[in-house]
Amino acid sequence: MTDIVPLRRNVRFQSLWIGSAVSELGSELTRLAMPLLVLALTGSPGLAGVVAGARTVAFLLVQMPAGVWVDRWDRRRTLISAQGLQAVVSALLAALVLTDQVQIWHFVTLAVLDALCAAFIEPVLGTAIRGIVPTSQLHSAYAQEESRTHAAGLVGPPLGGLLYSLGRAVPFVVDTITFLAATIFYALAKVPRRPANQSQTSAREDGQERHPNRGGMRREAVEAITWLWRRRGLREVTAAVMVLNLLGGAFLIPLIVLVGERGGSALTTGTVLAGLGIGGLAGALLSGRIGKLLPPGRLLLVVLTVFGAALAATALPWGAWWPMVPLVFITLSTPSLNVVLNVVIARMVPEEMLGRMGAVLSMGSMALKPFGPVLGGALAAALGGATALVILGGLIGMTAAIASLSRELRSFTGEVTPAGRDAVGPGAHPGQVPE
Predict the structure, then answer these.
(1) Are residues 221 and 190 in the same domain?
(2) Where are the transmembrane segments (predicted)?
C-alpha cells in the first residue's frame, strides 16, 4: 500500500492553492478599488451597485452551462484559458483607466467578461481538489482553501485602498499581474483533465473528450437539479443561504458610504474591510474545532444570527474605524460552515457530476445575490450608510428566526452513513449538503 504524501508536500495541490490565492488577492484589490473609482467618476452609490450587480448576474446566468461544460471539457485547459482571459480583461480596464477613457459602460462590460471567466474557473478548482487530494485529507485541504480566501480578504482591501491612493489605475495593473501569475501556477498544478473514474468517455490525443452516451446540456443540468431536489433538508438550507447571500451581499456599498460619511479615506475604508479577513482567517484556523460543535443546519442558524447582529452593530456612532470590529465577528463562524459543507459535497457527489452539481448548488445559493449590491446602493443613496446597515442586519436576523422554525433545517447534519447515504437527523429523510 502506497503511503499518502502529507498535504504540505503535495506539490500539485500547493501549486493550485498558490495560484488561487494570488488570483483571489488580485480580485480583492479591485473589490474595493472598483466601487471607489465608480463613485469618484459618477458620485452615485447606485451606479456602483449596478456595476457589481451586473457582474453577479452574468456569473449566475453562465454558471450552469459552465458547470456542464467543465464536466465535458479538458479541465486543465479550461482552467488555464479562463484565467489567462481574465488577465486580458483586467489589462483592458487598466489601460482605459490609465488613458482617462473609462466610462460606466466599460465597467459594466468588463465586469461581465470577468464574471464569465470566473464562472469556468470556480467549478474547475472545486473538481481539481477532489482529483489531486486523498479523501482523508479533504478537510485539511478545504480548511487551507478557506484560509486562502480570508487571508486575501484581510490583505486585499487595505492594499487596494493604498494602491488606489497612489493612482486610480494602479490596483488594476497589479490585478493583471496577479492573474498572470495564477495562470502559471495553474499550469504547474497539472489539474486532472477528466475524472479518473469517468466511464463512457474516450480521450483523443489532443486532450479533448468524446461522450458518446451523454445527453444534451439540458438533460445533464436536469439530472443534477433532480439530484438536489430529492434531498430534503438540503432545500431549506439552500433557501436560507439564498437570503443570506442577498442581504449579506448588500452591505459593502453602504459600509463604504458610512466610512466616507464619517471622514474616512480610501485607506481607512480598506483597513475597515480587512476586519472581514481577520475574522475569516481566524475562523478558517478554528474550523476543525468549531465544525464539531454543531451540525451544519444549526451552525447555519448561528451564522445568520451573528451576521445580522454584527451588521447592525457597524452603524453604532463610534467613528470611522469602529465597523472593523463587528466585521470580524461576521466572518468568524462562516469558514467552519463552508469547510464542513465542501467536504460533504466532495465525498458524496459523483466526480463526473461535480462541475454541474457545484453550479447547481452555487446558483441555488446565489439566485438572489445579484440584487444585493443594487439593494445596498439604493438604501445607502436614500437613507445613508448607517440606516441601510441597520435595516440589512435586521432583515438577516428575521431570516434566522424564520429559518429556525424549519425542523428539516434544524436537524440537517449531512453525515455519511455506512450505506453511503447522508442523514439529516433523527426521523428526517436522507439529504446532502449544498455549498
Answers:
(1) no
(2) 32-58, 79-98, 104-129, 172-189, 237-260, 266-287, 299-321, 327-346, 353-372, 378-403
CA distance 192 to 384: 49
Q: Looking at the domain assignment, is residue 204 inside a domain?
A: no
- Domain assignment of residue 431, yes or no: no
Nearest-angstrom CA–CA distance, 190 and 322: 45
Q: pLDDT tens digits for the chain (435 residues)?
A: 456 777 778 888 888 888 888 888 888 888 778 888 888 887 777 777 788 778 878 887 887 888 788 777 888 888 888 889 989 988 998 888 888 887 888 888 888 888 888 888 888 887 788 778 877 777 778 878 777 777 777 778 778 878 888 888 888 888 899 999 999 998 888 877 775 545 444 444 344 444 444 557 677 777 777 777 777 777 787 788 888 888 888 898 899 899 988 988 878 887 888 777 777 778 877 776 777 778 888 888 988 999 999 999 999 999 899 999 998 888 787 777 777 777 767 776 776 777 777 777 777 666 677 688 889 989 999 999 999 999 999 999 999 999 999 888 888 776 644 444 444 333 333 333 333
Tell me the whole-structure pTM to 2 decimals: 0.66
Residue 314 vs residues 266, 330, 335: alpha-carbon distances, Å: 18, 10, 21
- Domain count for the chain, please give it: 2
Tell me the DSSP string of 330-384.
HTTSHHHHHHHHHHHHHHHS-GGGHHHHHHHHHHHHHTTTTHHHHHHHHHHHHH-
| DSSP state letter for 5 | P
Please check whether residue 247 lies inside any domain of the structure.
Answer: yes
Claim to verify: residue 190 and residue 241 sit in the same structural domain: no
Tell me whether residue 426 is in a domain. no
- One domain, residues 244 and 379: yes
CB 211 within 8 A of CB 200: yes
